[in-house]
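Progress against Task 2.4 (sequence-to-structure conversion) is shown through the following example record, which the project officer requested during the mid-term review.
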Amino acid sequence: MPWIQLRINTTNDLAEQISEQLEESGAVSVTFQDTYDNPVFEPLPGETKLWGNTDVVGLYDAQTDIAELQAILNLDQYSYKIEQLEDKDWEREWMDNFHPMQFGKRLWICPSWRDIPDPNAVNVMLDPGLAFGTGTHPTTALCLTWLDSLDLNNKIVIDYGCGSGILAIAALKLGAERVIGIDIDPQAIQASRDNAERNNVSQKIELYLAQDLPDNLQADVVIANILAGPLKELAPQISKLVKTDGKLGLSGILANQSQSVCEAYKTQFELDPVIEQEEWCRITGKKK
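Structure tokens generated for the chain above:
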């Protein structure tokens, strides 16, 4: 069916209020977009991330009365645009544009509706959905490539901020003996559990909410793909999870934030050169 899209340019202070008004006026969905299309990392589970100049975008049935909508929302007070969206099978078009992706030498992330390019490769089956990482974002790609470069045989791995479980499942498929996934959001825990079952590795993964972690938990490899702020704040806790001589991988960090994150970890780790991709970066190191 055809749709009408209403795009209102506003500030982050007003975006939430406008979002509520759009929902009350009959919008079937409301999203936030950065006006200047700056690269923004996926927000933490449960967090709504807004930016300095924000577009609030509402989607309405094409039969919506535009004049009535303009009056209800008092649109004259905003800079806005109303446009008709082409009638397409959006789900099919989206599926057609999601392809298997290779990371490193061995690892592929494959949606379930596509043929596996290399049956002899390490294939993770993961369909994009609610939570929180599919491999398309540079930070996830950086982490997957790093995992592919490691010898994970007989290793214990912790995925801190597991989201969809993509990194945890990849680690298991790459040979890890056991993986512990940690997140602050119960939906992420459920998504990781579902994806682990889909990939037949559920017997080797343990999942915990952050507040429920067992005491004295440690691993040979710890990976955390969250955001620079939480990575710095959580540095003492994350560092304790890494065994002596164990490996640490951090991402979710803009390149201009890398130095401050390195500062938070350099006393306990011998850090490698920072790797950058599309304004994002990955920090890795070995526990002293």
